Amino acid sequence: GNQNIGNVVLGDGVNGYVVHLRSDVTFDSLTVRPNATLEMYDKMLSFSAPRAVSNEGWIYLNDGGKLTNVLNLDTDSGTVIYRDTDSSIVQGFNIRDFGPGADYHDLRLEGGYMSPTQDIYRLQSDLHVGGSLTIGRAAFDANGFQTTVDGFTALTGGSVLTPYSPGYDGAAYYARTGDQHFNGGLSLGYRANFYGGTGTVDVKNYLTVSTANFYAPSILNLYGAQNYFQWFNDIAGKFDPGTGTVNFLGSGPQTL
User: Quick check: 127 pLDDT over 60?
Assistant: First the structure.
């Protein structure tokens, strides 16, 4: 049954420790030190009173994870990874909202790599990532909400395998109707796809579309003093402006 374990510290800050949470537990506090990993599955992690996790390592919310009285999983350090552990089926998961301010520091979304199509991670409210956002073998659906990423955003690439084989397509991003703000740059890897919607998309620092597909939104704003935008187009990639507008708004030289 669920029992209170008290104040819990994972790792010594040097060596790599991995803890698998396979039963419902209650903590008074939780600290994940550097190089330590907490793997959560379908069990509940609760705090005895509302508080935040101190995370300098990695927390896996496998299959979405379950949390009670957890204010956040740390917003200025550490990495949170959403991952599907069942590669045999395509699933949809909601990205957890932690209220006003930043929701996560570094956030990664990973899907089931043996599936020929992608798991989908959907927003249920506005998302603010204080660090970086990495989307792996998965699709991100903004679902009508605003996304703000202060650090770098990467849509990782797929493989060079035969079409429809596992891992063939890269990540996908569906901007929909909400505004999307990429304050630290945006990069699309091999066979990744960005689908702009009716909301505005702001990209600071640089936009890189490397043998991928970028379908522009209604308004695409490219900012920055010395941005460098590069599209490497071949048979597998393109920049599609649609009927939208691309605004170059940098205060200094910009290179296309």
Answer: yes
Tokens representing 112 are 């089931």
Q: d(Cα 103, Cα 202) in Å, to the nearest integer?
A: 20
List the beta bridge partners of residue 79: 58, 106
d(CA 44, CA 244): 45
What is the C-alpha to C-alpha distance for residues 2 and 128, in angstroms, rounded to an integer? 32
How far, in Å, CA of 219 to CA of 245, rounded? 5
pLDDT in tens, 10-45: 999 999 999 999 899 999 999 999 999 999 988 899
Whether 227 and 249 have beta carbons less than 8 Å apart is answered as: no
Spell 125-154 as b/e; 16+ CB within 10 A means b: eebbbbbbbbbbbbbbbbbebbbbbbbbbb
Whether the pLDDT of residue 162 is over 50: the answer is: no
Q: 148 has which bridge partners?
A: 128, 181
* pLDDT tens-digit map of 54-106: 999 999 998 878 999 999 999 999 999 998 887 667 778 999 999 999 999 99
Give the Cα separation of 221 and 106 in Å (integer): 24
Give the span between the Cα atoms of 108 and 104, in whole angstroms. Answer: 10
Q: Do 128 and 102 touch, CB atoms closer than 8 A?
A: yes
Cα–Cα distance between 205 and 89 in angstroms, integer? 37
Three-state SS string over 190-209 comes to CCCEEECCCCEEEECCCEEE
Residue with tokens 């552990």: 85
Q: 């930043």: which residue's tokens?
A: 102
Burial group, residue 5, by CB count within 10 angstroms (0-12, 13-18, 19+): exposed
Question: Strands 138-141 and 219-222, how do they pair?
Answer: unpaired
